[in-house]
Amino acid sequence: MILVTGGAGYIGSHTCIALDEAGFDFVVFDNFCNSSLESLKRVEKIINKEIAYVEGDIRNANDLQSVFDNYKIDSVIHFAGLKAVGESIEKPLEYYDNNLNGTIVLCTIMKKNNCKKIVFSSSATVYGDPHTTPIKEDFPLSATNPYGRTKLFNEEILRDLYTSDHDWKVILLRYFNPVGAHKSGMIGEDPNGIPNNLMPFIAQTAVGKRDELSVFGGDYDTHDGTGVRDYIHVVDLAQGHVKALQKIDSLKEVLTVNLGTGNGYSVLDMVKAFEKASGKKVAYKIVQRRAGDIAKCFADPSYALEVLGWKATKGIDEMCEDSWRWQSNNPNGYTKS
User: Is the pLDDT of residue 337 over 50?
Assistant: First the structure.
C-alpha cells in the first residue's frame, strides 16, 4: 500500500487517480490546511471506489504512526508541504517548520516502521536562477526564496538518509509548473484566497471572479518581456509518480528527475492560449517584477524518458481547455456556494 501525504491537494488528488488506474492501493494523509476533503470525494466518484484517508499533521508523529498501525505501508509519495513562493518570503519560519520538520518526522516514522521507499515532490525552484536553459538535472543548485530552499534542504535530508543506510530507495521528482485539470472537470487547482500560480489566476479572471491578471514584470530578456516557464499538465505529472513507483525497487542510488515538457511559454503566451480555449478575454496589466522570480525556467526532460520511460504527452491547448472546464464548472472551487 502507498501512503500519499498531501493526497487531497492539487497534484496529490490527480496522482490518486493515476495510482488507481495503475492498480496501486493507497491511503491519503492530509491536514486539509491547503486542500479540501471534497476533492477526495470527487476522486472517489471518478475511480468509483472509496478512498482510505487519515486526517493529521505531517509534523505529528502520533498522527503518522496511526497510519502505519492501521495500514501495511510499502512506499510513500510525499506531497505534503506549503507551496507559495510569495508567502514563503513573508512567513519563512512557517515554511521551514512545516516543510522541513514535516519531512524529518515522516522519515523518522518510516524508519521506525521499516518503510524505506519514498518519492519526493521537489521543484525546479532548486535550480535558483539557472545560468542557461533548458535545465538538466546536474545543474548547480540554489534557491531564490524560502519555499525553494525547503525543497533543496529536503532533497539533502533524503540524500543523507540514503548515505546513512543504502536500504533507502529515494526518487526526487523536480516539477516544473503544473497546470490543467482532470478531463472530467470534477477536480482541479483550488487555491486558498488569491492564487499564487499563473493558471488559476488567468482562469479566475476569465470566469469573472477577478477583474484582471497582474503580470509581474514586462522587461525580462524573453521574446515578449514576460517570464517564461515550462508548464506541464497535472495528469502527465501524476503519471510521472506512477512511473517512479514502478522503478523504485530497482534503484542503486538516489534518483533525481526533472518532470517538464521542455517547452517554455511566456505569461502572455499562456494568456493567449487560455483566451482561445475559453472564448473569453483575459484582462491584464503589467506590474513590477516579483521578488524571487526569474526570467526563464524550462526543463530538459530527456533523462525522465531514459530512466523512467516517462514523457509529457499533453500540450498547451489541452492544458488550457482542461483548466477552463474545471474553472467554468467550479467557479468557486470545491465550495458548494
Answer: no
Q: How many domains does the chain have?
A: 1
Q: What is the pLDDT of residue 170?
A: 98
Whether the CB-CB separation of 267 and 227 falls below 8 Å is answered with yes
Task: Note whether residue 63 is domain-resident.
Answer: yes
- Residue 119 in domain: yes
DSSP 259-295: ES-S--EEHHHHHHHHHHHHS----EEEEPPPTT--S
Q: What is the pTM of this model?
A: 0.96
Between helix 234-248 and helix 10-21 the angle, nearest 10°, is: 60
Distances (CA, A) of 227 to 198, 277, 282, 298: 11, 21, 17, 11
Across residues 201-209, what is the average pLDDT?
Answer: 92
Cell of 184: 472530467
Q: For this structure, is 147 an active site residue?
A: yes
Ranges 44-53, 111-120, 287-296, 310-319: which has the least confidence: 287-296
pLDDT in tens, 267-300: 999 999 999 999 999 999 999 998 778 899 999 9
- Helix, coil or strand: residue 208: coil
- Residue 282 is assigned to a structural domain of this protein: no
Which residues span the domain enclosing 237? 2-179+231-260+299-312
Residue 113 lies in a domain: yes
Q: Catalytic: which of 10, 53, 95, 147? A: 147
Q: How large is the angle between the packed helices 61-70 and 102-112, nearest 10 degrees?
A: 40
Query: Coil, strand or helix: which one is 334?
Result: coil
Greater confidence, 102 or 292?
Answer: 102
> Alpha helix locations (H) across 48-145?
61-70, 85-90, 92-95, 102-112
CATH number at 64 reads 3.40.50.720
